[in-house]
Amino acid sequence: MQKSRYTEEQIVGILKESEAGVATAELCRKHGISEQTFYRWKAKYGGLEVSEAQRLRHLEEENRKLKQLVAEQALDIVGFKAVLSKVYGPPRDCKGTVHGQTVCENVSGLTGAEHQSAPGAAPVENFQLHIRRN
Predict the structure, then answer these.
(1) Among 47, 69, 86, which residue terminates a domain?
(2) Structure confidence by residue, pLDDT tens digits, 41-83
(3) DSSP output for 36-90
(4) In terms of Cα–Cα distance, which of 24, 2, 4, 5 is closest to 14?
(5) Has this prediction a pTM greater than 0.70?
(6) In degrees rounded to 5, what are phi and psi of residue 4?
(7) Domain around 55
């Protein structure tokens, strides 16, 4: 982001001149700014005192730092998940996802059809699907 040539104190001073009755075109010419810049400043700093404008700048800077910290932590989490999936692999008993939930087989490792045809298999009603939330 480009740094402003004017400090908050100077911007508030220019806006105070405007409130005192100096024409906008004359102010812009005197201070070497465009009318667009003047109206942008008026929208952002209009009605603020110097101390409030400085506080606004400090809060915006703190907000930027916090957003950067959250983004870095999100990247760390993605990296940790990638490493863990390589080390431990995906759960062996899971078949995939259905409506955002992970569907897993029963403990024997057989699906319902395989379970029925296995020798000495228990009835199908004992077959259980375990659903794990992601």
Answers:
(1) 86
(2) 999 888 888 889 889 989 999 999 999 999 999 999 988 888 8
(3) HHHHHHHHHHTT--HHHHHHHHHHHHHHHHHHHHHHHHHHHHHHHHHHHHHHH-S
(4) 24
(5) no
(6) -75, 145
(7) 8-86
